[in-house]
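tokens incoming
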């Protein structure tokens, strides 16, 4: 429905629904941290931003949908192959394994705790280097946006009130030109 629906706001809301569905699948796979991160980051921040941008833009849906019918048969063929591929994957023996019920590490400790231990013990220096690179990137983006050549013009109401017509307006008298036939 995200791709097929005509209203862009409804399409964004269907994308929110698909994010919640993906988070539910991750919960079923015992990946609690990924599920909550998806809901908080994508649904909570990115999709709210998308919705605000879509609502602020004046999108003419009729011009966007002009070529839709021309590509519809190709879309049906691609959708058919995707359904066949998903059916082959789901019907395979990959999802029949009993890895989650055999008392693996995920039952001893939570995934969030294991992820925290991996980040802050095994990959601490990598994590700190990534944080420093992100800090440099943020500082570079801010410095690029704050260009020194921009001149800010501020108004001074006391000077504007004291201005006279003769100070601002100059009438120039010129001879008009005549067209030659």
């Amino acid at each position: 429905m995200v791709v097929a629906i005509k209203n862009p706001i409804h399409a964004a809301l269907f994308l929110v629904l698909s994010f919640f569905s993906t988070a539910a699948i991750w919960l079923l796979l015992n990946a609690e941290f990924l599920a909550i991160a998806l809901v908080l980051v994508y649904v909570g921040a990115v999709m709210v931003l998308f919705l605000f941008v879509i609502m602020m833009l004046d999108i003419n849906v009729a011009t966007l949908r002009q070529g839709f019918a021309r590509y519809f048969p190709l879309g049906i063929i691609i959708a058919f192959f995707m359904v066949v591929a998903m059916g082959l994957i789901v019907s395979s023996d990959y999802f029949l394994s009993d890895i989650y019920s055999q008392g693996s590490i995920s039952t001893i400790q939570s995934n969030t705790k294991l992820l925290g231990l991996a980040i802050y013990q095994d990959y601490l220096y990598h994590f700190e280097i990534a944080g420093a690179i992100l800090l440099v990137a943020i500082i570079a983006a801010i410095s690029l946006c704050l260009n020194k050549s921009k001149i800010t013009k501020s108004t001074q109401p006391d000077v504007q009130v004291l201005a006279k017509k003769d100070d601002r307006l100059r009438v120039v008298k010129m001879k008009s030109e005549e067209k030659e036939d």
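note: The radius of gyration is 30 Å.
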